Amino acid sequence: ETGVTQTPRHLVMGMTNKKSLKCEQHLGHNAMYWYKQSAKKPLELMFVYSLEERVENNSVPSRFSPECPNSSHLFLHLHTLQPEDSALYLCASSPRVLAGRTDTQYFGPGTRLTVL
Amino acid sequence: DAKTTQPTSMDCAEGRAANLPCNHSTISGNEYVYWYRQIHSQGPQYIIHGLKNNETNEMASLIITEDRKSSTLILPHATLRDTAVYYCIVRVKGADGLTFGKGTHLIIQP
């Protein structure tokens, strides 16, 4: 148990559906991240939020829409996805770096998404 | 972030020390070496990190060469639950996001 939870753990959706992935951290961190891990590929960073503001967007298609309403919660809204978007979606959190503080990222268990 | 090179896979007998190497010959002075592991279908787990001195925690030890161009992660008494993909990542502390490579698939044999 890392203190980062993700729901749902598994999701199957059609290409015309709209769904949302949820991430919650109980560590008092103020930076949160979305990563994507496709089969046989390394983890890819998608989005970074710091103090609830998006600070990084790694050329992710607009069919993925992140939302960070507060420092404990992060969402990934999905719409009109493609079968190649099927992957493990991982959320992570970390403290922002201050002098002498670690910025280690702690990951949730992931949501296994299948797009039919 | 500097590039890292790791063997694709390694075997280790249960109860023995597992030594996982990582090359990072282009590392710059302000870049740290981080190690994470990912057990099948789970989220990555932080193990340890260091700058230039050797580090040890309850999970592992990290040995960094004097020129900082390579490092070794040591799991002192490997168990079957240590079977996972181990990632060596070089990055500036505080940089946003982690860049994962393919890592080393460590298989602990009974």
Query: What spatial order of strands do you see in the largest sheet of chain B?
Result: 1-9-8-3-4
Major sheet summary line of chain A:
7 strands, mixed
Reported for the largest beta sheet of chain B, the result is: 5 strands, mixed
Which spans of chain A have pLDDT < 50 for at least 5 consecutive residues? none
* Chain oligomer state: heterodimer
* Number of helices, where a helix is a run of at least 4 consecutive DSSP H or I residues of chain B: 0
Poorly predicted parts of chain B: none
Overall SS class of chain B: mainly beta
Helix content of chain A: under 10%
Structural account:
The complex is a heterodimer of chains A (116) and B (110). In chain A, the strands form two sheets. In chain A, strands 2, 4, 5, 6, 9, 10 and 11 form a seven-stranded mixed β-sheet that branches. A four-stranded antiparallel β-sheet of chain A has the order 1-3-8-7, with no helix packed on it. Chain A has strands at residues 4-7, 10-13, 18-25, 31-37, 44-50, 53-57, 64-70, 73-79, 87-94, 106-107, 111-115. Helix content of chain A is 0%, strand content 55%. Chain A is mainly beta. The model of chain A has no long low-confidence stretch (mean pLDDT 89). Chain A has no helices and eleven strands. Chain B is mainly beta and 110 residues long. Helix content of chain B is 0%, strand content 47%. Chain B has strands spanning 9-13, 18-23, 31-38, 45-50, 55-56, 61-64, 70-75, 84-92, 104-109. A five-stranded mixed β-sheet of chain B has the order 1-9-8-3-4, with no helix packed on it. In chain B, strands 2-7-6-5 form a four-stranded antiparallel β-sheet, with no helix packed on it. The termini of chain B are far apart. The model of chain B has no long low-confidence stretch (mean pLDDT 93). Chains A and B meet through strand 4, strand 5, strand 9 and strand 10 of A and strand 4 of B.
